Amino acid sequence: MLKNESLREMTGWLFSWKMFLLILTIISSILICRPFCKYVCPLGAFYGLFQKFSFYHMEVDASRCDHCGACEKICPMGVEVTKNINSPECIRCGQCKSVCHTDAISAGFVLGCGGSCKTCKKEKEA
Ligand code: SF4
Ligand code: SF4
User: Fold this and answer.
1) What is the CA 39 to chain-centroid distance, rounded?
2) Considering only the top CATH level, what class is 49-125?
3) Which ligand is nearest to the Cα of residue 68, counting in written order?
4) How would you classify residue 112: left for phi > 0, otherwise alpha for psi between -120 and 50, otherwise beta?
5) Which parts of 32-69 fold into alpha helices (H)?
6) Could you give the maximum distance between any two Cα atoms of the chain, in Å?
7) Where are the domains of the chain?
């Protein structure tokens, strides 16, 4: 295809544009973790809007956290785990929880907290 000029003319600029996007996605995927999910995917951004209303919550117990930074280092979405673990960027992969050596991170379903859980209180204060 790349060598055949008549085929190239038939496919036009749209093909070249798509090839450019494909190569860009492949190269950025090698250099950055999940670039499409983080910066391009409109579905992820849309779902992120509902994170606030999710029944599945994660929490960091500040009294247990020694600020080692391991959770933020491993987070594939670059979430500031200790500051805003329920960020719209979070994909609930649980990697932060699994590396926390003090078990400061908890996760689970919260049904109808009525705004009384730590996460909701923090959001109100912010
Ligand atoms: S891994 Fe655990 S102890 Fe370390 S900063 Fe994160 S929450 Fe705190
Ligand atoms: S669950 Fe995954 S995406 Fe969410 S804060 Fe933890 S490591 Fe990051």
Assistant:
1) 10
2) alpha beta
3) 1
4) left
5) 35, 42-48
6) 68
7) 5-44, 49-125
List 72's β-bridge partners, or say none: none
Written as six digits, the tokens of 77 are 């979405």
Rounded to an integer, what distance in angstroms lies between the CA atom of residue 18 and that of residue 40?
Answer: 15
Asked whether 60 lines ligand 1 (CB < 6 A), one says: yes
Q: Cα(101) to centroid of ligand 1, in Å?
A: 7
65 ligand 1 Cβ < 6 A: yes
CA distances from 104 to 19, 45, 51, 68 (A): 45, 28, 21, 11
Query: CB of 96 closer than 6 A to ligand 2?
Result: yes
Give pLDDT tens digits for 68-119.
Answer: 999 999 999 999 999 999 999 999 999 999 999 999 999 998 765 545 556 5
Q: What is the pLDDT of residues 82-95, one digit of tens each?
A: 999 999 999 999 99
| C-alpha span between 113 and 118 (Å, rounded) | 10
Tokens encoding 19: 């090839």
